[in-house]
Amino acid sequence: MDKFVKKTPLVISTSTTKKVEVKTPKKNVKLEKIKSTLKQFENEEKETTKNKIVVKKKAQAQNNYETVLGTKGYSISKSEFSGEEIDKLKQQLMAKPHTQGGFSVVNIVKKFPIYRESTSRIYMPRYFGEEMFGIAKKMKVSTGLDIDVPFEGTLRDNQVPVVETYLNYVTKNKTVGGGGLLELPCAYGKTTLALYICSQLKIKTLVIVHKEFLLNQWVERIHQFLPTARVGRLQGTKIDIEDKDIVIGMLQSLSMKDYPDNTFSSFGLTIIDEVHHISSEVFSCALFKIVTKYMLGLSATMNRKDGTTKVFKMFLGDVVYKGDRDQEHDVIVRGIQYRSDDEEFNEVVTNFRGDIVYSSMISKLCGYNKRSEFILRVLDDMIKENSEQQIMILAHNKSLLTYLHDAIANRNIASVGYYVGGMKEAALKETETKKVVIATYSMASEALDIKTLTTLIMATPKTDIEQSIGRILRQRHTNPIVVDIIDQHDPFIRQWYKRRTFYKKHNYKIIQTTSTKYTPDTSTWLSVSTTNKKTVKTTNNKKKEDTPETVLDKLLANSGVVGGGEYKPCGDDSADELEYGSDDDTSETYQDGKSSKHDSVFSQCVLQFK
């Protein structure tokens, strides 16, 4: 059997275990073009800021425009401005998403408009319009139908100030209403809070979600906390909104389907779950169709790395409350540096420009069976250590998840189930009862709600892990555990530095070892940080705290992997910017045109769930 399940025929450059001198070409035409594009992008940003100041000053000096808030958004007559001023206004209403990673022109910027126009008016997001021109002079938005859905339950102490802050903020002007965002970490009870707000505002509500399993979760919570509410659905060709108190709509349908003008006139409150998804060019179209008196956006992470956070803030308002994660969880992080003397495995995959190909790097990790077997060994030891814990294993690549799932099942290590896109609700519920839950990162980041989870194993490297870890903190458990597999390639080491910064910030206890020195007895592992550690300022006469370089150097001394402060605790984090196959995909095709064996098995598994 090959030690790699799949190989990608790309150019390979060595990591720190082998250095190769590469001659720099005298003139790089592509690089010059990239620099020129970056400069243009920078100039456009400066010009946009300048234009905003100019237009806003005019608006403040002459605040007598005919502004209207209607079903298509906030609008103003074009006749109020010169052609040049309209152009400047449009420039401010252009979204410029970008991706991080290799420096190629296609990664830098792709613009799309966040305005609409007719022959006489220009339509823009409500809160951009209010910032520029003030509250609209005319309100043509329906107040929504009245509903009476008493809340059955009690808010936790930390939830009370959230709803009070939001309700006070949006009802300051009861005539026009308002909107805002709630940025709350996992396990804060975002759905519960939103339903309480709905019960207090007492107006017909539209809830927007982007995945069907989230839709089902909302239905469950509504029946739990608002048992008298009549629930409708808006999905595909199904428009079940008449005589309903709360309607749950799929974002894809709302974005891409045309509806009659009066479809949403009965709603007074719109709630958008996982609101950070709505900033894309396609999904943001939904926000031009749905303008209600009150707007509420929910997410644990409002900031988007592609620079489009401002898009949903223009439509929904700013963050009105940001909750902090409970610091009392005694989380233990077990960091395990995976070592290999296999030169081919240790090489870094690059493209012809020398950029790291992160998707191929992840595939390399997932296809290396020795690494997968080590993860299984760690899992087996953890179950023997504590048979009562429920463990979730996360990875980007479904081929690795399939390999682990089949091995766990065939070797009778524990009961195991999938929690991935494409599965029916009944199958997901069945998985929630298993000892080991196999899931993708994207599923774990989108309201996965299994309160009995106690342990997390991150089988592939990732930087943005807050929501993933939040899945084992939904209820208080004794010493929840995070197993962090640290790969020795340069880009993955840099990601580890960022994860460790997160762990320390949240006061988690960190212990580390290597795969070659691994033992289930964690008392022999190196302690990197302990909980409740107070920060002590040092002077030049005192011993400095270990830097990210020195701690890792100690751990990996004489390994030939890290040394001499060669790694820096910062750098490109492009691996998290790429999707290694959508959760709704059931197979993955590689350059040779063939699908991997594991993905084929995975496809069969998902199909039998449907």
UniProtKB/TrEMBL annotation:
Coiled coil: none annotated. Residues 563-599 are annotated as: Disordered. Keywords: ATP-binding, Helicase, Hydrolase, Nucleotide-binding. Residues 171-320 form the Helicase ATP-binding domain. SMART domains: DEXDc. Pfam families: ResIII. Residues 573-587 have a biased composition (Acidic residues). InterPro entries: ATP-dep_DNA_Helicase, Helicase/UvrB_N, Helicase_ATP-bd, P-loop_NTPase. GO terms for molecular function: ATP binding; DNA binding; helicase activity; hydrolase activity. The keyword ATP-binding applies. PANTHER family: GENERAL TRANSCRIPTION AND DNA REPAIR FACTOR IIH HELICASE SUBUNIT XPB (PTHR11274:SF0), RAD25/XP-B DNA REPAIR HELICASE (PTHR11274). This is Helicase ATP-binding domain-containing protein. It comes from viral metagenome. The lineage of its organism: unclassified sequences, metagenomes, organismal metagenomes.
